[in-house]
Structure formats: C-alpha cells, structure tokens
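Internal tracking record. Fields below are filled automatically when a chain is submitted to the structure queue. Please do not edit lines marked as system-generated. If the sequence contains nonstandard residues, flag them in the REMARKS field before resubmitting.
Queue: standard
Priority: normal
Entity type: single polypeptide chain
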Amino acid sequence: ERDRIVSFDMGLTETEREATSNLEISKNSDNFHYWGKAGSEELRGSLNSFLTSIGENSKERIKTVADLMVRIGEGLTNSTDAQAVWYEVRSIMPNDYFDTPRWHTDAKFFNPLKAHKLANAVKGTQTRFGVTTDQEKFNQLSIAENNEQHGSPEDIRIRKELDSIVTEFRTGSEGGNAALYLVTGSEAVIHSEPLIGESRLFMSIIPGT
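SYSTEM-GENERATED OUTPUT FOLLOWS
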C-alpha cells in the first residue's frame, strides 16, 4: 500500500491547531470548487468567503484556517512540480449516513489520467482507507452502489456487502495528518467517509497541469 498512499505531517502551528479545533460549523455546505494557481489571491479570497458562510467565526480564525489550506496546496504543488491545483472543500454536520462505510474509488472521475489526491479533514475525523482481495466483486458492487439513490435501503444493503469484502487499514492520517493517494487506474485506493459524530471540514486537493 505504501506505493499507492502516503501519510504526512502538515506541520500545523499552535495557532493553526487552535483555529481548526475551535472552528464553528453550523451547516452542511455546497461543495466549494477551485481550479487554478495554488497560492493565488483568488483562492485565498474564495476560501475566506466560504469559511465565513459555514459558521460564526472571527475574521482572524477564518484567515488562519484559509491561510493553512492555501499553504498545504502550495506545498503540494512545490513537491509535485504541478502548475495548478483542484480544490474541493465541504462542511458536514454530524450524521449517521456513513455508519455503514461507503467503500469506493475515484477512478471513474479521472481515468485515463494518472492522478493523486491529497485528503484531509481540516476539522473532524479523517478519511478511512481499505483493501480488498476480491477486486472483481468490489468493482461490480461499486457500479451497483453508484446507481442507487444514496442512503436508500438497497444502497445500504450493497454497502454492507462491500464492507464484507474490504479490510480497513491504518495509514497514519488518523491523527490529523494528510493522506496523498492514487485515485486512478486498477490500483486506485479504496476509501470511505468516516463516522461523522462531530462537525467536519473536509478538503481534497489534486495537483495538475
């Protein structure tokens, strides 16, 4: 698995830790999307506006969290020689929707391109990762699950069947570190949203050209 996924410490300062820990989230947001230069003022301003919309937070706290999210993207582009990044960010209130994991891959979104994704819960529980010994059955069930209405009885039934053939493994990201993993091809990493017992701010970044 180490060839397909790596966990790393984001080097949070005490100020960043305090800001993310105390970030107030009071709504399920629409997905925030951005494609462009990692350190641009457009990105910084858009993140500030998004964070302002999800809860009652001071301007100082919002700026600290937005700057952290920008810094992570800049570090990713510098380490991968990428020219641009695709950010996706969303806030999620506590729920029981993922009490049954939604094991899946992102390959259908990116094939035939080769891509890696950085995933991090800026606040809340980190993404879960797994592996299967029955890839053919996993692929079949994944297609079936994707065609169902999420959360429906049949969707949950398929998810339980998927859960029976996936073994979760620890990556080191569970303590708050970011995970960078392969999202394309036959080796795309299986993952799921975690149990969401507390408000969550999730960010993914995909470097590109």
